[in-house]
Design goal:
Elements: H1 3-10, H2 18-22, E1 27-29, E2 39-43, H3 45-50, H4 55-58, H5 61-67, E3 79-81, E4 85-87, E5 90-92, E6 100-107, E7 113-119, E8 133-134, H6 135-150, E9 157-170, E10 173-184, H7 190-196, H8 202-216, H9 226-248, E11 250-251, E12 273-274, H10 298-317, H11 321-332, H12 334-350, H13 359-376, H14 380-385, H15 387-391, H16 396-399, H17 407-418, H18 424-430, H19 438-449, H20 454-463, H21 473-479
Helix pairs in contact: 6-19, 6-20, 7-10, 9-10, 9-11, 9-12, 10-11, 12-13, 13-17, 19-20
Length: 495
């Protein structure tokens, strides 16, 4: 290795391989990645600093090789994680990382352990397709992870996106290949437990649960019923997560149990979208033909997924598995009340209402607003953003979202809401001015695929500061009502 390459390699992050060492049964080794001409397209500098990683080093030749899996950081033993999952309600006994690898773990500046995980590195032993990814979908994950993070919604985040120099052919279209490197508190999925619980070696399930407690809920270590407490803590985190989605107008798209994490972080942004016109039955994913994962069904689907997780944990909850399942159902049943509580808290802030306003009044006010939005297919993010001005006495922005026949109903609602004493500043600080408008995101990604990363970089900067709307053409496009189109917006998983 020449001196320049040695210097580059020495600046790469040192990782640990705790997952692979503790759970070899849930790990599969992966071959070295191949990237003949890697080029770093985007580095998340704020995240790199959080992780104690020099972002400049990631832009070097050796940094690009690390980000594509073509070279390995000190301490790294990359593995594909093995898991099962319920997809569209049907159990699949082996899924696993078909095009991804866990490079390892690293402690961030706060001392928390974070996964360093790559997507699009090529085929693994569990690949369903060729294992590679392309620039557009990987940059999409970068954008939307940053948008969610700026809204204080727990999420995986992209560290970098790197073009591999190898084109991929999808449906007769040739696209530039890319690898996403992302971080998470862990990549432990509900499906990880669904796989482990079906192994003959019962110690694997226990070790997985113990590792989950150590990673996410160390204060439960030594509890009288640690695995019941683990399930209860996950239920609590998922109630928060789901309420946050509903307040943000976020539609995940494919909430199978292999696409949800026990940490409560959102993962896999391929088929997701954000609401424009409010419709609780809306579906954006091209493969969700029956509306299983529609926006309004997300709470019930997440409850269903938690029931599957509870069943997987049942052998750890009681000596008799049937008793364990009954205990799991009891724990998961708390989701409904927790979700309602968190939903009210989310919409209390969106409405700008303080803690002295009765919860039932908050719920009724929010539900009435949503009914008005649904009946008129009014713009979801613009409605909530307009409440700040309306709380100050200017309803013009609110009323212009509705056709004249609907405005008396909106006025009557606004009168009742104003009587509750909304705080305009709280509303402004809760409801973003900048939202990732679906078509704008696609246009920006299209430009990036063609080699123009300027709009992408500008959009990332805007989404990181969503409560301020600067006077730029792109910001104004994001803050404006989207144009009416004859065709509904459709998302694709990008595989």
């Amino acid at each position: 290795m020449d001196s320049l390459a040695a210097r580059d390699a020495s600046a790469l992050p040192r990782l640990t391989s705790g997952w692979a060492e503790n759970l070899p049964e849930l790990s599969r080794s992966v071959p070295q990645g191949f990237a003949p001409n890697p080029r770093v397209l985007a580095v998340n500098e704020p995240l790199a600093y959080e992780l104690g990683i020099d972002p400049v080093a990631l832009h070097t030749a050796e940094g690009a090789r690390f980000l594509t899996g073509a070279s390995r950081a000190p301490g790294s033993s990359p593995v594909a994680q093995v898991y099962a999952g319920h997809q569209w309600g049907v159990f699949r006994p082996v899924l696993g990382d078909g095009r991804a690898a866990l490079f390892g773990e690293r402690r961030d500046r706060s001392g928390a352990l974070r996964d360093i995980h790559a997507k699009g590195i090529g085929p693994t032993s569990m690949s369903r397709v060729d294992g590679f990814a392309t620039v557009g979908p990987m940059l999409r994950e970068f954008l939307l992870g940053e948008a969610m993070h700026a809204l204080a919604l727990p999420t995986t985040r992209a560290l970098a996106v790197t073009a591999t120099g190898t084109p991929r052919s999808l449906g007769g279209v040739t696209l530039p290949g890319a690898v996403l490197v992302r971080t998470a508190r862990s990549h432990i999925r509900y499906g990880s437990f669904e796989y482990a619980t079906r192994l003959e070696d019962r110690s694997v399930l226990r070790r997985l649960a113990d590792l989950t407690i150590a990673r996410h809920y160390p204060d439960e270590d030594g509890a009288a019923q640690p695995y019941r407490r683990l399930l209860a803590r996950i239920v609590d985190a998922v109630a928060d997560q789901t309420a946050g989605w509903m307040g943000a107008g976020f539609v995940h798209g494919v909430l199978s149990t292999d696409n949800v994490l026990v940490s409560g972080e959102t993962i896999d942004y391929g088929p997701c979208a954000f609401l424009d016109a409010y419709d609780p039955d809306v579906v954006f994913s091209s493969i969700d033909r029956h509306g299983r994962y529609a926006f309004g069904r997300q709470p019930s689907i997440m409850r269903w997924n938690l029931d599957r997780l509870g069943e997987a944990l049942a052998p750890l909850l009681a000596a008799d598995v049937d008793d364990g399942r009954a205990l799991a159902r009891e724990v998961v049943a708390a989701f409904d009340g927790l979700f309602r509580e968190r939903w009210i808290a989310v919409f209390r802030a969106k409405l700008g209402l303080g803690p002295t306003v009765d919860a039932s009044a908050v719920e009724q006010t929010a539900q009435t607003a949503l009914a008005i939005l649904a009946d008129n297919r009014a713009d979801f993010p613009r409605f909530w953003r307009a409440l700040g001005a309306a709380a100050r006495g200017d309803r013009s922005g609110l009323l212009q979202l509705f056709a004249p026949p609907a405005r008396p109903r909106v006025e009557a609602w606004a009168d009742e809401w104003r009587a509750l004493g909304p705080d305009a500043a709280l509303s402004d600080a809760t409801n973003p001015a900048i939202v990732p408008r679906n078509q704008v995101v696609e246009d920006v990604l299209g430009a990036a695929v063609e080699g123009d990363l300027g709009p992408f970089d500008e959009l990332v900067a805007l989404l990181r500061d969503p409560f301020v709307s600067p006077a730029t053409p792109l910001a104004e496009k994001l803050a404006a009502l989207p144009p009416d189109t004859a065709s509904p917006f459709v998302t694709y998983c990008g595989t």
